[in-house]
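Database export, one record per block. Field names are fixed; values are copied verbatim from the stored entry.
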Amino acid sequence: MLNHEDRSAVLLHPAQLEYDLFPLILVQAGELRKGLEILQQAAEKAPKNIEIQYHFGYALNADGQTDRARQVLQAALAQGGGGAAREQAQKLLNELGR
């Protein structure tokens, strides 16, 4: 049985779908500009959310903005926190080179 903390990690807040996952899907589907615009707004509203910051960095990299992507990822990782988003952010940062 999942404890409260595990359940919270599984459940998605509707805002996360709208401002994080939906624009990420847009980016991956080739709607880069639209997805990037929404992710930028989300990143500005949630600067300490490593998952949103990772997705923003991912989108920036997909747009060829590697220097800015690197800055976003470094700032997100410097804040601490953990989980899969942190691992993915670190992996992308390593691929971009520090």
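Remark 1: Residues 14-28 form the longest helix (15 residues).
Remark 2: The two ends are 41 Å apart (CA to CA).
End of record.
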